[in-house]
Structures are given as structure tokens and as C-alpha cells.
Amino acid sequence: MAKIRSAWEIALEKTENITIDREKLKKDENIKKARILIGAYLNDDENDGSSLADELKQIDDEAAVKTALKLSAIQNLTLPSDTVLTDRYERIANIIAIACGNNPNIMELTGQIISFVKQFPEHRKQLVDQLKEQFAPMLEQKAAQLKAQYGQEVPVSLENDPEFLKIANTQLEKLQKQYDETLAGAKAQLEAALS
Asked: 194 exposed, middle or buried (CB, 10 Å; 0-12, 13-18, 19+)?
């Protein structure tokens, strides 16, 4: 007859070979501490970052701090939605400077990436303006047709025109994709340089 075992005995049997990697646990904890400090610097406009390097030096694991700096910088290098947050990009550059010890090659690459990212809202605006200019004659023609049909002026705008919106969205998605792909490549290059 088979012996009946409790769930506790079965659980103990299945977990007896599991070991805890204390080194990895400590490193992960140090990365988390560093990322909290970095996040506070990035998100607090009042924090000028003058003490960030000193605060990070208090964490005894230099590799964990460098990993946290690299992860934070790479994850925060994103395309702006409508307005460029110049201060935020300066803060990201400061984080990268701490991570690389102001290596001129890495700082030059960082400057190029930030300049590229800052161009995105302007390129979006230029694309929309260009599309509006191209569609203006069609909109005037639609307004004339509606006036002839209804006997009075009917307000029409590009923002409400389904054809314009469809084309504008398609073009904006293409632009976004191009920028995303280029930024992903640049971030991979930066990540490799920081490693």
C-alpha cells in the first residue's frame, strides 16, 4: 500500500534542491537602490543632480550602479510626444556622463541621440503642415460641393475629414516607425558602448 504524503512533505521534497544566490540577490537590491536615486533625480525638477554621483557612490557595488545608470538612461531615451523636454534630456545626459566617466566618444554619441530625438516633434509638425497644404484645395472643393448641394455654406475642416485623417495617420505612423527604428539602433549602440 502506498504511503500518503502531505502537501507540505511534497513541497519540501520539490524545493530541497533550490538554492538562493545571495550575490545576485544583493546585486539586484543594489540596482534597485540606484534606480530609485536615479528616478528621483530624473523626475524631480528641484533636484539639480549635484549630489547624485555622491549618493550613488554610497552603494558599495560599482557594477550594480553602472547597470542601473545604463538601464535608466536607455529606458528614458524616448521620443517626445508633442513638446521637447530639454531639461529631461540634459538629466539623461548627466546620468550617462556618470556611467561612462565623461568618455568623450560616448558623450558625443549621447549628444547625437538627444539631438535626433529632439527633432521628432518638429518633423511631426512639418509633416502635418505639409499634408494640410496638400489637402487644402480638396477641402475647398468639398466645401463648394456642399454649398451647391445644400444652398448654404457648410463648415468643413481637415481635422474632421476622414480621408485626410486616414492619410495623416498613415504618414505619421510611418514617421514614428522610422524614428523608433533609428532610435532603437542608436540605443543599442549606446548600450554596447556603456557595457
From this structure: buried
Q: Residues 134-186: pLDDT tens digits? A: 888 887 888 777 777 777 777 777 777 788 889 889 999 999 999 999 999 99
Could you tell me if 143 and 156 are in contact, meaning their C-beta atoms sit under 8 angstroms apart? Answer: yes
* Cell of residue 65, nine digits: 550602479
Local structure of residue 34 (DSSP, 8 states): H
37 and 69 in contact (C-beta within 8 Å)?
no
What is the sign, positive or negative, of the torsion defined by CA atoms of 90, 94, 95, 97?
Answer: positive
Q: Is the dihedral of CA 67, 184, 105, 38 positive or negative?
A: negative
d(CA 18, CA 161): 62
User: Is-above-0.85 flag for pTM?
Assistant: no
| Sequence-ordered list of residues with C-beta below 8 angstroms from that of 19, at least 6 positions apart, any chain | none
Q: Cα–Cα distance between 159 and 165 in angstroms, integer?
A: 7
User: Do residues 73 and 96 lie in contact, with contact meaning Cβ atoms separated by under 8 Å?
Assistant: yes
